[in-house]
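Deliverable D2.4 — example input (structure tokens):
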């Protein structure tokens, strides 16, 4: 009889090629029984067998029936311990089967037509690698069925050679190649014509040829039908490289004729896949092991831990050697047992995950607050498992309490913050009170940060807060930075408290072993019920009074007066007028000369913005420039000055340059360099005749951007000068970091150098540094002949100041290009 599989008639007769695979399976897995079974409706019949004299069996009795029904592998490591098979006839009968592993045989159409299985009379483990090996052998069975089908079509050899991905190589008893299919050509690179007739050793690496020949001779000489084991070996390609192949050897005997059949399969992809799977497994293990959440698994049958990760060890304070294999009660205190049982029972009663909050006691007695998610699951062996994911939330709970505190308090000083302070003031006003607010600001706090660092500054703020609380005996808030506020419910005592607080802050602060005088200024404002308003109005008025106190000499205090509000409104009016001053033509550009300190030749002019207000007259730059910066007008103002200066300089002698200051607001513009390039092109002014002046503080905010902008300016051809050197952060690192062409010494050092040795030393040092770096040095604020002569003697390159020439319209300098003439005019 035959069984039809697809288009193949598979005879129910023994076949050596299937027996070979059964023998390989028995040998490879060291089992006494291996079977190739074919599905035949209600029964399965045995196509190949090792160790069991059986022809067929009912499908509902055979273990293989389960594989055929599910089309999935079936692994039972101990049949006697498995509830499905412990009373099975093949387990209790003479066979005494205890282990079974079977995989489906699936043809190329996806139809499962049989199984390859192995049976042992003793329990055993069977891992993923073993399963892959059994499935590989099952593929060999399937391939043989396919070969049978191809033979029935009378095109077996041709089709196999053209379609199989396995290399089939046959040799005669002397090891000469008699068959070499297309897959062998593709795998090893040798054309069929060059391979046929050659000793097979040409594909064996030299180091292995001796061992191969000995094994080959033993195989030929052996009368045993048992094949060699399936092995993985390196094979030699034509180009000299090696490829790992999975080799299966078989012996076909017909009389005295012996044919050695070799099946070679490229193991590279499989090795890569195995490596990837192993890497994936290791990654998964590493992820689980290193996850911040504590993970554990318990066998619900025994109530014992079977897995914990590192985070669980850290959370519990116990090593896994003290946990694995033990129950909860063996590990944790009995006092926590009741809570544990409740949480476990709740998880068991729920089909999905359940979130619980409880405590966990460590061996040292500390108690941790945890959030645990528990869920029932089934392990790969069918055991009920309780999975748990626990997270230590002790710090989170404490942090939430801390956040609740910080929502109303300053984290550094512990004082009230601005929000809570305003709420308290509003509550006092709503209750009908007339509170006063004292705004305080430390006068010389920036010096502490600059000289001693921010850590010392924080220490000063903490001590200042303590002094204010002690002196005022009232609610105190830190509004930000070094600014504080005091709420005085009894406004009549506000002045006395302000004076006492300012006095206590006038005492020196101990910083790094030194007594440093810092001082403070204060402004006082009283809520006027008749004027309405809330805490914001009182705070604003107190702030205005504070700035008046600072303007009067610091370490002072004063009450708010309506005139202060008038002054603030006046400033706002100036800001409003400034927004339209450009359109009204009120702003123009004046120029101040810069001269060669030695020859007296005027070499450039600095362009300066001037504002003639129609009502207030000339407004000094020191007033309107900060307003322009704060109000966002500065980019437009800076662009106006640059356009005007470029257009004017284009008419000058080609030897003269023009210098223009850039503001921080302009530096923030994304297209600044391109904008300057367009302005120069429009004015037809060569880039080399423009000098851009920037202060060092503008570069500190974003060093990387500063370097990029300066580099782009220099690439455009524009030179870059550091303005007001010495007044800000001043570090020699800037000369190495930023690509400057010139440095300007701030006028404060020039003004004081005759009377202050330190100022003179700074001037000398900067001039010497510039000479060493080949960088011209400009001295600003030269107002006297003595200053000029001193700078000449020190080797200064360029000078600027009232002694050289005051800022004026460019017409004032049309004939003044020699320093002596300008100086003479200034002296006259």
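Example output (designed residues):
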């Amino acid at each position: 009889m035959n069984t039809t599989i697809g288009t193949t008639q598979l005879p129910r007769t023994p076949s050596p090629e299937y027996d070979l695979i059964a023998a390989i399976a028995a040998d490879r897995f060291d089992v006494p029984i291996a079977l190739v079974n074919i599905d035949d409706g209600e029964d399965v019949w045995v196509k190949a067998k090792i160790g069991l004299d059986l022809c067929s069996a009912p499908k509902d009795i055979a273990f293989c029936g389960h594989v055929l029904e599910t089309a999935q592998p079936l692994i039972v490591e101990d049949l006697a311990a498995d509830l499905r098979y412990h009373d099975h006839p093949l387990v209790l009968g003479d066979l005494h089967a205890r282990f079974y592993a079977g995989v489906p045989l699936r043809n190329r159409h996806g139809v499962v037509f049989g199984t390859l299985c192995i049976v042992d009379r003793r329990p055993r483990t069977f891992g993923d690698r073993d399963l892959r090996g059994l499935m590989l052998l099952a593929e060999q069975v399937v391939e043989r069925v396919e070969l049978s089908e191809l033979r029935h079509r009378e095109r077996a050899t041709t089709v196999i050679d053209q379609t199989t991905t396995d290399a089939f190589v046959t040799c005669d008893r002397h090891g000469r190649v008699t068959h070499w299919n297309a897959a062998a050509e593709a795998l090893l690179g040798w054309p069929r014509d060059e391979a046929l007739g050659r000793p097979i050793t040409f594909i064996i690496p030299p180091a292995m040829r001796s061992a191969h020949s000995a094994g080959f001779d033993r195989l030929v000489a052996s009368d045993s039908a048992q094949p060699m084991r399936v092995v993985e070996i390196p094979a030699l390609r034509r180009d000299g490289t090696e490829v790992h192949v999975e080799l299966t050897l078989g012996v076909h005997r017909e009389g005295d004729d012996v044919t050695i059949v070799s099946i070679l399969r490229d193991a590279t992809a499989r090795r890569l896949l195995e490596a990837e799977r192993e890497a994936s497994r290791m990654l998964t293990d590493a992820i689980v092991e290193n996850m911040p959440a504590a993970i554990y698994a318990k066998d619900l049958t025994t109530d014992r831990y079977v897995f914990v990760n590192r985070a669980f060890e850290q959370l519990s304070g116990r090593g896994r050697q003290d946990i694995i294999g033990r129950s909860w009660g063996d590990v944790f205190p009995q006092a926590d047992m009741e809570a544990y049982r409740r949480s476990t029972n709740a998880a068991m009663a729920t089909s999905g995950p359940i979130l619980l909050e409880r405590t966990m006691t460590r061996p040292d007695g500390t108690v941790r607050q945890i959030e645990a998610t528990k869920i029932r699951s089934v392990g790969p062996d069918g055991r009920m498992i309780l999975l748990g994911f626990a997270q230590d939330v002790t710090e989170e709970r404490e942090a939430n309490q801390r956040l609740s505190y910080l929502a109303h308090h300053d984290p550094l000083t512990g004082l009230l913050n601005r929000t809570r302070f305003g709420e308290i003031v509003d509550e006092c006003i709503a209750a009908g009170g007339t509170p006063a607010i004292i705004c305080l600001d430390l006068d010389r706090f920036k010096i502490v940060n600059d000289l001693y660092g921010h850590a010392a500054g924080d220490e000063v703020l903490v001590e200042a807060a303590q002094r204010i609380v002690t002196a005022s005996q009232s609610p105190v808030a830190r509004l930000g930075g070094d600014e504080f506020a005091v709420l005085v419910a009894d406004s009549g005592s506000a002045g006395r408290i302000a004076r006492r607080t300012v006095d206590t802050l006038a005492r020196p602060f101990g910083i790094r072993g030194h007594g440093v005088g810092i001082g403070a200024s204060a402004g006082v404002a009283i809520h006027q019920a008749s004027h309405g308003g809330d805490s914001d109005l009182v705070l604003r008025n107190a702030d205005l009074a504070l700035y008046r106190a600072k303007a009067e000499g610091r370490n002072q205090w004063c009450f708010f007066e309506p005139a202060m509000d008038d002054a603030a409104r006046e400033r706002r009016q100036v800001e409003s007028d400034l927004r339209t001053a450009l359109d009204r033509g009120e702003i123009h550009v004046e120029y101040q000369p810069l001269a060669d300190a030695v020859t007296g030749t005027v070499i450039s002019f600095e362009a300066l913005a001037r504002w003639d207000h129609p009502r207030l007259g000339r407004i000094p730059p020191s007033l309107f420039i900060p307003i322009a910066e704060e109000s966002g007008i500065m980019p437009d103002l800076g662009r106006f000055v640059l356009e005007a200066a470029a257009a004017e300089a284009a008419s000058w002698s080609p030897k003269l340059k023009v210098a223009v200051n850039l503001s921080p607001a302009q530096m923030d513009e994304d297209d600044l360099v391109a904008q300057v390039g367009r302005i120069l092109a429009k004015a037809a002014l060569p880039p080399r005749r423009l000098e851009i002046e920037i202060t060092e503080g503008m570069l500190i905010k974003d060093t990387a951007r500063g370097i990029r902008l300066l580099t782009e300016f220099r690439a455009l051809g524009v030179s870059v000068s550091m303005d007001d050197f010495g007044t800000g952060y001043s570090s020699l690192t800037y000369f190495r970091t930023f690509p400057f062409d010139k440095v300007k010494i701030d006028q404060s050092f020039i003004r004081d150098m005759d009377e202050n040795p330190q100022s003179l030393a700074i001037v000398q040092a900067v001039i010497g540094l510039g000479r060493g770096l080949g960088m011209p040095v400009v001295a600003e604020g030269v107002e006297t002949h003595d200053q000029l002569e001193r700078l000449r003697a020190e080797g200064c390159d360029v000078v600027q100041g009232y002694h050289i020439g005051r800022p004026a319209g460019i017409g004032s300098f049309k004939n003044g290009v020699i320093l002596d003439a300008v100086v003479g005019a200034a002296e006259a």
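The longest strand covers residues 242-254.
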